[in-house]
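thread: overnight batch results

M.L. [08:02]
morning all. the overnight job finished for the chain we discussed friday. pasting input first so we're all looking at the same thing
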Amino acid sequence: MNQTIRGYTLTQWLGSGGMGEVYQGYHEVTRQTVAIKLLSRLEHAERFRNEANVQASLRHPHIALLHDFFVEGGLSCLVMEYIEGPTIEQFTRKNGPLTEEAAWKILGQVASALTYLHSHQIVHRDLKAGNIKFGGQGNAKLLDFGLARLANSPRQTRQGHLVGTAYSMAPEQFAGESTTASDCWALGVLFYEMLTGYTPFGGTTESEIGRLIQKADYLSPLKLKPTLSRTSERLIDKLLVVNPENRLTAQQVLDIIQNPAQLDSSNWTDPIRKIWGRLKF
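M.L. [08:03]
and the structure it wrote out:
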């Protein structure tokens, strides 16, 4: 493979996503190794531009940097920071769940990235293990802003069309609503998956997954990994809450990481809220 686009030589195919193919590239002049996403489906051109517009302004240590966006020969190209290493999804499939210490570390890094996005009124809308890579020294980087949007911007998809990855979607997303709280639900799903190696909502069809999610009906992570701390279980419980108004924010997750004892004080309303969420549907 020696195809060259705008001075970048494509050296290796890295994978494909919903909108395009991703390659490792190298610029002969700057000697910079990058990741290049090439749009493969023309009907997604508007989303591809949206990804560039959203990501271009972002500067955060746990968000992949966008270097350039251009159209060459009718082909839309995103040039991004190249991050060596697997995604969290790839890692857990090969090696099993992370240690609790490692999971908390990555949780804090991703929560920090979400706090930054949400402070800029940006909702990621597709936070999942496959969109987070391990950088150097175990540092996580959030990728793929193809579905991201400003919190108050108009929908880019038609009514009734689901946006996101079903198993990590919040209950309100099945009704077409996405807010910063939806990202925090996905953060809870991510934490559960890092700790156990499984997703909390494992139905075989999208509708079955949706029914489980809308009741917050999931197996306690302690059943899958009995050595987990009660603190991790409580944190998941406070993120996977049906009512988005009662969910922890990304900033609150950061605060808890600084002082986990906040989760030790039992709240007698939590079990009632959980039971009510399951009975509503």
